[in-house]
Amino acid sequence: MTATDTDQYVYGIVRTGTPTPPVAGVDDEPVDVLTAGDLAVLVSPVVDAGEIGTPENLLAHSRVLDQVAAGDAVLPMAFGTVVPDADVLVEDILPRLHDDYLERLHRIEGATQFTVRARYVEDAVLAEVIWENPNIARLRESTVGTTEEESYNERIELGRSVSDAIGRKAEEDARALSERLTPLSRDLVIRERTSAEDVAEIVALVDRNAQADFERAVESLAAESAGRIIFRLLGPQAPYDFVGEV
Questions:
Q1: Measured between alpha carbons, how far is residue 222 from residues 45, 58, 225 in Å?
Q2: For the purposes of burial, counting CB atoms within 10 Å of the CB of 216, is it exposed (0-12), middle (13-18) or buried (19 or more)?
Q3: How do the pLDDT tens digits run along the chain, 246 residues long?
Q4: Cβ(166)–Cβ(228) under 8 Å?
Q5: Alpha-carbon gap, residue 221 to 166, rounded angstroms
Q6: Strand locations in the chain, DSSP E?
Q7: 229-237 sheet: strands from edge to edge
Q8: Which branch of life, at top level (predicted)?
Q9: Contact, 108 vs 186, CB < 8 A?
């Protein structure tokens, strides 16, 4: 595809010759490529840039990038990136950043991203911390049969103690999970916990030839932790966490 005067929605940077994904893009528009030497950019036409930021379009953006990442290296652009002048993209931006983009593509060549989300079964982890911490058991017992007003201080201390205990347990479990997955990953990142029940959200850059082994390892972890930790595996995904800001 040659550059046009039409606004272009930009998904990501790839090597020239990368197959166009067989899925609809943002606003159900077909995905195509603009090429500049040995680099190319995945795009689709934009009718109304003001209507881009919908949940459906976010899913379409991710779907296009994940489809490409399943077989080829791609540098994902941020959701909502629109270029009003495609000539600038092809004739200025890609040539100017050519070496940087090629280096980043080389860094992720042959690999894709997986995200492992591990979350405690609430009743199970609560039972563990009560069993392991006599002070928590005592505080819990002291609130039984009382109103919130009568045992306000004890309830505050109980909540804080439980949260701290689960946090320590999550650190230990996250470390154990990462130790199991690190040998199967080219690179690995542990994101910050966002809720009390979170064990870990581990993002791994996995060689495609190790993908099956990685998936089996997550399945084994889930089986070993059944009833205690729930696992969710997402991927293959575009390598958002391993290419920096594009």
A1: 42, 29, 5
A2: exposed
A3: 444 457 889 999 999 999 888 888 888 889 988 888 889 999 998 877 777 888 999 999 999 999 999 889 999 999 988 888 777 778 888 888 888 999 999 999 999 999 999 999 989 988 888 898 888 888 887 777 777 777 777 788 888 888 888 999 999 999 999 999 999 999 999 998 888 889 999 999 999 999 999 999 999 999 999 999 999 999 999 999 998 776
A4: no
A5: 19
A6: 8-15, 32-36, 39-45, 75-76, 82-83, 111-120, 187-191, 198-207, 229-237
A7: 187-191, 198-207, 111-120, 229-237
A8: Bacteria
A9: no
Token representation of residue 62: 């991710």
Phi, psi (rounded to 5 degrees) for 146 = -115, 160
What tokens does 34 get?
A: 């603009």
> Bridge partners of 191?
201
Positive or negative torsion for Cα 226, 223, 111, 238: negative
**Tokens representing residue 232 in the block:** 């969710």
Instruction: Render 85-151 in DSSP notation, one character per residue.
Output: -HHHIIIIIHHHTHHHHHHHHHHHTTEEEEEEEEEE-HHHHHHHHHHH-HHHHHHHHHHTT--TTTT
Picking from 157, 173, 167, 60, the residue whose alpha carbon sits closest to that of residue 116 is 173
Q: Token pair of 138, please?
A: 């005592």
